[in-house]
Amino acid sequence: MSVTIALTDDIEACRTLRRVVFVDEQGVSETDEIDDLDDVCLHLLAVENDIPVGAARVHITKGLAKIGRVCVLKSHRGTGLGASLIRKALDVSRGKAAQAKLGAQTHAIGFYETLGFTASGPIFDDAGIPHRNMLRDL
């Protein structure tokens, strides 16, 4: 697998991936998936052979880098791409924030713990899916 992950201005490619993963696969409503933060976030796009296969975004505010909308196409899950997206998000956040935060779907908490995140606070509902906040120093 030769996947490149880089910052991108191609928000539409990121939204297309998010629609496939969150709306089509997980049943999240389109109105819950799209918000007004895309214009102020840094976007990461994972591409293999010119085809987008994963995405994430980072919203940096008040010393905190909030990583979100992390998605990987089903064909590329289990390859380490999700971890690579998170590591890249952490890399682009260093020097801009002191801490990283994300809202992890509860089934993925263990995955994020392997990347240095610690669960914080109670479980909450986000678009009908249980999540828990996770934090990590940069």
UniProtKB/TrEMBL annotation:
Residues 1-138 form the N-acetyltransferase domain. GO terms for molecular function: glucosamine 6-phosphate N-acetyltransferase activity. It comes from the Bacteria. InterPro entries: Acyl_CoA_acyltransferase, GNAT_dom, GNPNAT1-like. It holds the Pfam family Acetyltransf_10. Gene3D superfamilies: 3.40.630.30. This is GNAT family N-acetyltransferase. It comes from Sulfitobacter geojensis.
